[in-house]
């Protein structure tokens, strides 16, 4: 399991307005495209110098494709990255702070210690 | 030699800009009280008449990323562009450009390295709301050159709390040893108890009001010994999963000094998190300053 690659997906999508919309509207296709084209891109290098070894597990891919922030949290994806991207995708469908509060309620069953997010 | 005109520690709440500028039905009920407290806090910096601002904050996965993550980083550049697309999107923050104070940055890098702090550096740093929030609250005209110093409170493994305190003490000494006749304010922002992306987020108060009460007491009284005796990398998970940002307050306690009581202390209990504002005047309260 690669927390790093989950975080890399969340990070690279969150910072790109077009990818945010694409992930909101077509999560299955966006995750497939991203894994094929972007997962191995070292962010400050050219594509000639891509990595060769990064891939999601089936469970990771499924969590991203199902917008399943609870499972992402359980896997140790960085909570700030997940929250920020999911607010960008879904806050607009709700009243003020409704989405943020529901996001927390969906994790009410999770107790300390939380999953480790360390490298 | 330079003078430390003020030491300022604060929470950095990205909602302040939008709340303080909203009008009519969009203006939250707590906005007026918040603005009033911020204006009082701002005056504590204005009265210190700084020439230069050293700004301690933490990048929120904007420019610094997991493929190349520094623990402590000094920005050395003539300009710093500021705020990011996702901060405009979520918080309505404006884009800004701040001047850099390169001589002081070089002084801190050289002397910090010589004092055994293995500081990273950046010659092209786009800063985020951990530094622009205090610009907006404390110096909205954004007219002073800055030296940004980033700490890693975000991507574990993190440095120990005592290391933040040690770096704060070193920053104070390095600023005071800068051979320029300038008035330097050292400003740092962090968090009290905070939960982001977990079950305790966006509650009626911060996730751990008891931690917040103790934290404000430690900071306002300069109780580094008490703070260090209770705070560890493990313990900071308990008050909320983003509470490691409190270590930037500990850094600022190091800047202010052991046992140094803050000259200005204020708090504001908001939903989701408590705001807290502190100012010390190491060389005496500026004339005319109210207590």
What would your notes on this structure say?
With 119 residues, chain A is mainly alpha-helical. Chain A has one domain. Helix content of chain A is 55%, strand content 0%. Chain A is built from 7 helices and no strands. Chain B has 291 residues and is of the alpha/beta class. Chain B has one domain (3-280): LigB-like (Protocatechuate 4,5-dioxygenase, Chain B). Chain B contains 9 helices and 10 strands. Chain B has an 8-stranded mixed beta sheet with strand order 6-3-7-2-8-1-10-9, sandwiched between helices. In chain B, strands 4-5 form a two-stranded antiparallel ribbon. In chain B, a hairpin with a 4-residue loop joins strand 9 and strand 10 (274-280). In chain B, helix 4 (102-114) crosses helix 6 and helix 6 (161-176) runs parallel beside helix 9 (246-256). Chain B is globular, with a radius of gyration of 17 Å. The two termini of chain B are 28 Å apart. The mean pLDDT of chain B is 97. The interface between A and B is medium-sized, with 37 and 30 residues.
The separation of the N and C termini of chain B measures: 28 Å
Number of strands of chain A: 0
Mean pLDDT of chain B: 97
Radius of gyration of chain B: 17 Å
Largest interchain contact = A-B, 37 and 30 residues
Span of the ends, CA to CA of chain A: 12 Å
The number of domains of chain B is 1
Count of runs of 4 or more consecutive helical residues of chain B: 9
CATH architecture of chain B: 3-Layer(aba) Sandwich
Specify the CATH class of chain B: Alpha Beta
How big is the Rg of chain A?
15 Å
Biggest pleated-sheet summary of chain A: none
Number of helices of chain A: 7
Quick recap of the structure?
The complex is a heterodimer of chains A (119) and B (291). Chain A is mainly α and 119 residues long.
């Amino acid at each position: 399991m690669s927390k790093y690659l989950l975080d890399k997906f969340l990070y690279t999508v969150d910072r790109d307005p077009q990818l945010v919309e694409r992930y909101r509207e077509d999560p299955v296709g966006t995750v497939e495209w991203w894994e094929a084209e972007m997962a191995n891109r070292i962010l400050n290098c050219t594509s000639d110098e891509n990595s060769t070894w990064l891939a999601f597990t089936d469970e990771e891919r499924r969590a991203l494709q199902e917008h399943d922030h609870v499972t992402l949290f359980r896997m140790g994806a960085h909570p700030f990255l997940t929250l920020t991207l999911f607010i960008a995708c879904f806050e607009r469908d709700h009243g003020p702070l409704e989405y943020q509060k529901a996001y927390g309620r969906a994790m009410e069953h999770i107790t300390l210690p939380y999953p480790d997010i360390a490298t | 030699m330079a003078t430390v005109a003020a030491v300022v520690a604060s929470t950095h709440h990205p909602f302040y800009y939008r709340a303080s500028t909203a009008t009519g039905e969009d203006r939250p009920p707590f906005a007026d009280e918040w603005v009033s407290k911020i204006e009082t806090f701002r005056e504590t910096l204005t009265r210190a008449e700084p020439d230069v601002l050293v700004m301690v904050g933490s990048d929120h996965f904007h420019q610094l990323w997991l493929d190349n993550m520094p623990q402590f980083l000094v920005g050395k550049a003539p300009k710093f562009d500021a705020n990011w697309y996702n901060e405009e999107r979520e918080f309505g923050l404006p884009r800004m450009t701040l001047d850099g104070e390169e001589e002081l940055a070089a002084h801190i890098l050289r002397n910090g390295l010589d004092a055994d702090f293995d500081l990273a550096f950046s010659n092209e740093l786009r800063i985020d709301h951990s530094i622009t929030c205090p610009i907006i609250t404390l110096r909205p005209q954004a007219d002073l050159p800055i030296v940004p110093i980033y700490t890693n409170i975000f991507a574990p493994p993190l440095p120990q709390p005592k290391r933040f305190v040690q770096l704060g003490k070193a920053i104070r000494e390095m600023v005071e040893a800068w051979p320029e006749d300038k008035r330097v304010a050292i400003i740092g922002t962090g968090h009290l108890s905070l939960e982001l992306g977990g079950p305790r987020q966006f509650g009626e108060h911060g996730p751990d009001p008891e931690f917040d009460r103790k934290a404000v007491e430690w900071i306002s009284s300069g109780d580094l010994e008490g703070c260090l005796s209770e705070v560890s990398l493990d313990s900071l998970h308990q008050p909320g999963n983003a509470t490691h940002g409190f270590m930037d307050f500990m850094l600022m306690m190091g800047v202010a000094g052991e046992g140094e009581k803050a000259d200005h202390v204020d708090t504001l209990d908001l939903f989701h998190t408590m705001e807290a504002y502190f100012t010390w005047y190491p060389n005496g309260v500026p004339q005319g300053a109210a207590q």
